[in-house]
Write a structure and sequence with these properties.
heterodimer, A: 515 residues, alpha/beta, 17 helices, 24 strands, 32% helix, B: 340 residues, mainly alpha, 70% helix
Chain lengths: 515, 340
Amino acid sequence: MDDMPAQQPLLRMEGISKQFPGVQALKSVSLEVYPGECLALVGENGAGKSTLMKILSGVYEPDEGHILLEGRPVTLSNPHQAQQLGISIIYQEFNLFPNLTVEENIFIGREPSASGFVRWSSLRQAATELLGRLGVQLDPAAVVRDLSVAQQQMVEIAKALSYNSRIVIMDEPTSALTEAEVAALLDIIRGLKAQGLGIIFISHRLEEVFAISDRITVLRDGQNVGDLITAQATPEQVVQLMVGRRLEDLFQKEDSQVSERPVLEVRGLSRTGTRRDPSAIVLKDISFQVRAGEIVGLAGLVGSGRTELVRAIFGADHYDSGEILIDGQPVTIRSPQDAIRLGIGLVPEDRKQQALVLELAVRENISLAALSRICRGGFVRLAEERRLAQSFVNALQIRTPGLEQKVRNLSGGNQQKVVLAKWLALEPKILLVDEPTRGVDIGAKAEVHHLLSQLAQRGVAILMISSELPEILGMSDRVLVMRRGMIAGELSRAEATQEKIMALATGLNEGRPAA
Amino acid sequence: MARPLTSPAAAARPARPTDIIDILGRFAPVIFLLVLIVVFSILEPGFRTSGNFLNVMRQISFVGIIAVGMTFVILTRGIDLSVGSALAFSGIVAASAAKGTRSLLAGGVKDEGGIHVLYAFLAAVGVGLAIGLLQGFLIAKLEIPAFVVTLGGLGAWRGATLLWSGGQPISSFSDDFTRWGKGYIWEIPIPVVVLLGFVIVAHIVLRYTRYGRWIYALGGNPEAARLSGLNVTLLTMSVYVITGFCAGVAAFLLTSRLNSAEQIAGQNYELQAIAAVVIGGTSLFGGEGGVIGTLVGIMLIGVLNNGLVILGVSSYLQPVVIGAIIVLSVFIDRLVKQRR
């Protein structure tokens, strides 16, 4: 830090701490941003980057710590106030009105007006000026819906500038952009730096971090573990700082009989196009196998295509080309029904939105997928259903006052166990689990891990997505790492380390970019 | 952490001890219905005769049958605005089948009673089912919002009724035909028996069958239902077929009862049916409620209408009162839910 110019920092965050129920999200984090500087904020998923930025943009209030703008302490109690003070944040998900034009979006709520009527000429002029300042060719009268993702991002940046922002935070700004668009964005950031703004650039992609930033602040488990000057740092050093959590207290998968025969095989699975961007590569030529009794960990950054992959296998999303084989036989999976018939279960990412019917009872949720098995003539055999549900409540130690309790009233860990029970009731031979312990307390986490391990011992083939590297390392027989819709690499249990996984996930192995 | 974690509650919260507000809220429609019956009985002795009571029940039975189907639709977060018009069209087709005025129907047989009445009944139910299938297909398969499809149906089927009959009602049927609307089984009007039958069957289906469970799951969380392997398209379609079927049955009974198929038959039934379902505690957001509540809701509307008539209150006031009750019942429901 001594190498920095002896200049007043634009922004200084000092000793910021934030606690959420059950977790210390930030522990005494400090950082500073100087005028004309780009600070990169890096860290694993869940390291605390987003929480820190939400504090800076007034979404959360910190439990402890101070924020100083140009040396003056400020309190940011809502996003509007932060914006007024010149702090703008551009989220991954844009806050634009797709049905309005570029200029209307930029000045929404602050349109130049006279007696309640918008003065369109002034609006046009101001928007043109802003876009010019960014050096962007964009028609102010274009409707946002018709713009590309990159162009929409420009609108967001122009909107941020329109508040006379001095600090612009960009949260994963490049995740949805093509290489050419990334280069254009980096040029714009350079332009903003030249105008004296401070930029906080949050990214998982180390090549971009090294290409654009002046300094790098690394967060891990809610703590500031390193402040580096980019020119003097190496990507390896950054990865080392990002990972390196303690592993010993985490559950380790028990040995199971892994058969030679693959139960699930995926060959050349590809998908192009999302709702927002029809040319985006979602999955590209993905091939792998999962054998009976094996847990394959699927690592990668958020947005690398992990969730899309398991949803495609499960028939929840479509795919363009490729083949899925079960027990060596090619199968057609067009819907979750097909997948379930073939013995596949999916524990989705978001249990409340995608897995549970919160207003139904524990009993009804556990039996939902397997209902046909406990029916006679279309009638649910209630005694049978209770027996089934009770057996899983006992086996999985689901803590609930009773089978009739609404699932809404259970804790996160117990809800997750209900989701698992729902699939176990179907006795699947392939289980796809997406972030199985997200939002689950430590005790329940170990129980879920133990359960997955037991399932593998019973010969179930498990594909497990996780953003927590210790979980991946503790539970996986093999690790697949995804990056930008592709399998970036495969590591055996013996060779997998946090550093190697992170290197594959961030593309570190693909050569050093020019700084 | 990227997101705040879920509730720290270590295990599950214990079930709340049932308290008085909770019970009051849950049974508000029943309590209100009983209070109304007591009040009207005291104010006007004519109200409490069994004859009047059965009369009220018969009046509401036609829309009540439709409300039973509407319960299924609303449980899946849907809506069916077309039921009243579907009733009118089913009724007019059944009437021409009975009269033999359209040769393609029922082989052109004239209503001579007996087996020919069955043809008329099948015509009514067939038209109802066909309407339900078509609308269900548009909603479930082509994913056009239910509100839009059935709003279209609301206009279109009424228009089809006028086109079919050239604007003239079709009246005067055999006694075998009119017996179904006017007759009694053990001193209970047949339409009322049918309504109660529908309620019982629907209740059993919703509570005890796999299909019923699927309906609640679909309404409670469509995405979870899909990812749990439920055939969401077919299920969604099915509930509109059910309302179509109910509209067909109600059409036959109403035509029989009035001894005439009218162009205006079933007008506003969609609103009354929705009102009954909502007053009965079924959530418009799906997944919660049941058909017993709907029966209470429809009885409440019937008793209120009848009581106000007997008391000599302006008939113009009745829709105002019923409108207020709809809003009030949902408000009470919300209050109770907030407390949980």
